[in-house]
Amino acid sequence: MPHLQLVEKTAFQPKxxxxxxxxxxxxxxxxxxxxxxxxxxxxxxxxxxxxLSPRTWARWKAGSIGRVPRDxxxxxxxxxxxxxxxxxxxxxxxxxxxxxxxxxxxxxxxxARDIMLRGELTDxxxxxxxxxxxxxx
Length: 137
Fold this sequence. Notes:
The protein is an all-alpha fold and 137 residues long. It has one domain (21-135). Helix content is 58%, strand content 0%. The chain has helices at residues 21-38, 42-48, 54-61, 70-89, 93-99, 112-116, 121-135. Helix 1 crosses helix 4, helix 4 (70-89) packs across helix 5 (93-99) and helix 4 (70-89) packs parallel to helix 7 (121-135). The protein is globular and about 65 Å long. It starts with 20 loop residues before the first helix and ends with a helix.
């Protein structure tokens, strides 16, 4: 009969983000332009960025991104994935930007913007997963 052995507890070690600080800043600059194309208000931008303060968003719009925390990098990465998927699905850039605000049966008649503005990272990920499935990714 096998003997049970006590295993010492260890602290949880979350996976360290593979996104560098420079990449985080670059995604921050990109999302400023992307949100303008999507027609988002400053308040909506702050929600999509996980409750970013209006003052920090104003600095981002002025070109000063600074250090981007890991959780925000995850949001930015998913937003970039949404943008990429839309550019693959739609040949016309304007059509891809407008898709975000159009009602969609896949979201029960809500738009992708409505879904993402619920504010959780999982809401952004839901839109990304949907688009990835549409494009076959």
